[in-house]
Amino acid sequence: MKFKKIQNLPNSKKLDFYISDAKKYNLSILADRIKVQEAKKEISVKSAGALPSVNLTANYSLNHNKSNNDAQPYTDINNQYSYNGRENSIQIETNVPIYQGGQISSAVEASKFNYVKFSQDFIKTYRQVITETKQNYNNINDAIYNVQAYADTYKANESVYKEKLAKYKVGTETMNNVLQSISDLYDSKRILQEKRLDYLLESLKLKKSQGTLSDRDLIQVSKLFE
């Protein structure tokens, strides 16, 4: 498996950009935020179980009887049915919960406990993600610096090798020195490839913290190893 050359490493954006994205898109933060929101709703649901409720029901109906009597107040266009009355009813139903041995109160307290717990978990996750994002940001900057530094080393060793090879051809350089320059050249190339791989891994970690890592990123990385 040959690792292809990476061209033009991107300049990393400011740290605030990545932290802002992490707050909005990081999956761990989003998951814990939802838990807090649901726990807060659960408190309201459980608390409502101890409150009285009022139900209002209204009914309205018309009674029609078949008749040919023109004396009825209203008839349809075919003079077959006549209106002879209406019924209205309104029903109010009040429900007052009976004391259930503290069950409702216990349920409310349990919901409050969960809310506090999930809130604490959210704060912990939030801080961890921010710290992780900062660390990954610093790591990728270090990785970019290392790639650039070892790229310069590789170019320098390549120049040394070419120079020694040219001198060897005219008899002013030994074979041992040429072989040593070749060894130095391949060592610097190997290290450069390792640093490029480190950069790729750090970029994926930063995107994960940022909450923007996608299948497309993984596919692009895998293509570099084809």
TrEMBL record:
<comment type="similarity">
    <text>Belongs to the outer membrane factor (OMF) (TC 1.B.17) family.</text>
</comment>
<protein>
    <submittedName>
        <fullName>Uncharacterized protein</fullName>
    </submittedName>
</protein>
<keyword id="KW-0472">Membrane</keyword>
<keyword id="KW-0813">Transport</keyword>
<dbReference type="GO" id="GO:0015288">
    <property type="term" value="F:porin activity"/>
</dbReference>
<keyword id="KW-0812">Transmembrane</keyword>
<keyword id="KW-1134">Transmembrane beta strand</keyword>
<dbReference type="GO" id="GO:0009279">
    <property type="term" value="C:cell outer membrane"/>
</dbReference>
<dbReference type="GO" id="GO:1990281">
    <property type="term" value="C:efflux pump complex"/>
</dbReference>
<keyword id="KW-0998">Cell outer membrane</keyword>
<dbReference type="InterPro" id="IPR051906">
    <property type="entry name" value="TolC-like"/>
</dbReference>
<dbReference type="GO" id="GO:0015562">
    <property type="term" value="F:efflux transmembrane transporter activity"/>
</dbReference>
<dbReference type="InterPro" id="IPR003423">
    <property type="entry name" value="OMP_efflux"/>
</dbReference>
<dbReference type="Pfam" id="PF02321">
    <property type="entry name" value="OEP"/>
</dbReference>
